[in-house]
Amino acid sequence: MHFGAFEQLAAILVVSALAALIATLLRQPILLGLLIAGIALGPGVLGLVRIDESITLLAEVGIALLLFLVGLKLDVRIVAQLGPVALLVGMAQIVLTFLLGVGIAAAFGRGGADAIYLGLALTFSSTVVVVKLLTDTGMMDRLHGRLSVGILVVQDIVVVIAMIVLAAVATDAGTDAVPLTQLLGVTLRGVLLVGVAVLLGRFLATPTMQLLGRQAELLVLGAIAWAVSFGALSTVLGFSAEVGAFLAGMTLASTPYREAISGRLTPLRDFLLLFFFIEIGAGVDPTSLRAGLPVAIALSAAALIGKPVIVTGLLAAAGYRKKVSLATGLTLAQVSEFSLILVALGVAQGSIGPEIAGIVTATALITIALSSQLIDRTEAVVRRLADRIPGLERSAQRLSDPDDDAPMRPDIVVVGLGRFGSTVVEELLDRGESIVGVDFDPRAVSDRRLGIPVLYGDAEDPTLGEHLPLDGARWVVSTLRSLEGNLTLVRSLRLFGYAGGIAVASEDQADCERLRAAGADITIQPLHVAAAPLVARLDADDARRASDEAIGRDAGFIDYIVDRASESDGPVSP
Questions:
Q1: Cβ–Cβ contacts within 10 Å for residue 12, how many?
Q2: Helices marked H in 302-335
Q3: Shortest CA distance to 193 belongs to which of 153, 262, 251?
Q4: C-alpha to C-alpha distance for 186 and 180, rounded to whole angstroms
Q5: Of 186, 130, 176, nearest in space to 153 by CA
Q6: What are the backbone dihedrals phi and psi of residue 555, each rounded to the nearest 5 degrees, phi first?
Q7: pLDDT confidence bin for 99, thresholds 50/70/90
Q8: Which of 152-166, 401-415, 544-558 shows the lowest mean pLDDT across its residues?
Q9: In terms of CB atoms within 10 Å, which end of the chain has fewer, N or C?
């Protein structure tokens, strides 16, 4: 039976909604459900959808919007703050994983462009899957969550560079130009495209968005026009429209309108990306998929085992603790939606055949499904692996000035120097206390901005209490949110004879009771601490309103507001 365009659209939406619902019920990413829906709708299974120009156009716009929003998040100031660890580990992981992927391709008789695309597809991890699952499991603010996001940002930048180079090489491949001339042409066109982006971003982006920002609908329309225009310029210069959309996003990343644009375009992006995943799935031939399954299984093993091993080793070499390194590696154990985009562009340009897209799609299905379960159970998996893997960890040690040989005798030891911990340190320093910090992030150890000595140590190390300078310390304060880490710290301190006060952070009341039973004197609930001054301020204001009610009536509204505005109560401080 032949279906028209509207009937095909209805079939796509209904089957996609059902597949996404099933994926959600099975605690799988929606992306996985959409890929399976595409395979089911395609000619190899149900045959309900025929990929035509309308579906392809919607898919291309969806990819362009995805890359536009990725660029919109890549403010150069934020990229500069990633730090050398995320940059170096990210780049080293990309190189090593790429070589692993090329080696696997070569072992199965795949060389040339096929090997390059398979190696690149293995290299990148899924920003959509990782960020969603880290947020759902409350691990986004954990150290391994922050490291994972930093490495993903590096990967996103590299994948766009790879798209630029591969698209340009494919454009020049049909010419008689020698390789050096091709490279020179690619470089000059790339410099021109980036130069236009820099100039427009520097001088035109903010004024244009200010003009369009007078109405929300106009801002959205203008942002889409901005992205599509850059995409068109990119295609004229021989690159893909997606690369131009990415650069368009970067030009707006430093404007005050980026969050408003991102928030309004995200639902549209998600809707249009549906057609990309459907197109990818519908383009998979089950016969060729079976033929390429051995390669897909080998690549999946490399993503699920090889990539975590590479990331774990690199982070351990950078000085991170075993559990942090393992958790970060496990979080990145899948291939990316950008891998699918990359091979789709390769097929469209004729650089690779559809069977390579089928192999990468199968790898995505396997790795996303299994890595989602790993991320969901990160803590349990890491505990089991950490006990079975020797090495990769150094014991608690002091990292301070070699010339500073004087013993430390702090009044208070603060464990955990994240946002909450840094605030605690600043408040205590304002009160004249002597502080020593403890953290297992090497960057925090080397950061001198707090102006206190910092020890390298992990709260989950049972021997940590033996290494801390506790002589004369009245309090040990842990600002960590990990129940296991805080329980281990409390027990370690009491085991090594510390008789002073112990204060630990926790958001769960049941966990607070367990921590007090283990020996903690005070349990801190940071969100409650932050809210308490505001609640007290509101209570005081309610009481004053009641006493001032008559004044408000008699003096008149404007006079009353002027009187109140002249009062200085100071800011609310968490």
A1: 23
A2: 307-317, 322-331
A3: 251
A4: 10
A5: 130
A6: -80, -15
A7: very high
A8: 544-558
A9: N
Q: What is the mean pLDDT of residues 246-263?
A: 86
Distance CA 225, CA 211 (A): 14
Element (H, E) at 437: strand 435-439
Q: Per-residue DSSP letters for 186-221?
A: HHHHHHHHHHHHHHHHHHTHHHHHHHHTTSHHHHHH
At 102, the pLDDT band (50, 70, 90 cuts) reads very high
Q: How far is CA 506 from CA 163, 188, 516, 519, in A?
A: 45, 55, 11, 14
Per-residue pLDDT of 483-516, as tens digits, reads 888 999 999 898 888 999 999 988 788 888 899 9
Averaged pLDDT, 118-136: 88
Close Cβ partners of 31 (under 8 Å, ≥ 6 residues apart): 126, 128, 129, 277, 337, 368
Matching residue, tokens 């590299």? 158
Q: What are all long-range contacts of 429-435, with beta carbons under 8 Å and residues at least 24 apart?
A: 434/409, 434/410, 435/410, 435/411
Question: What is the token pair recorded at 61?
Answer: 């716009």
Rg of the chain in Å (alpha carbons): 28
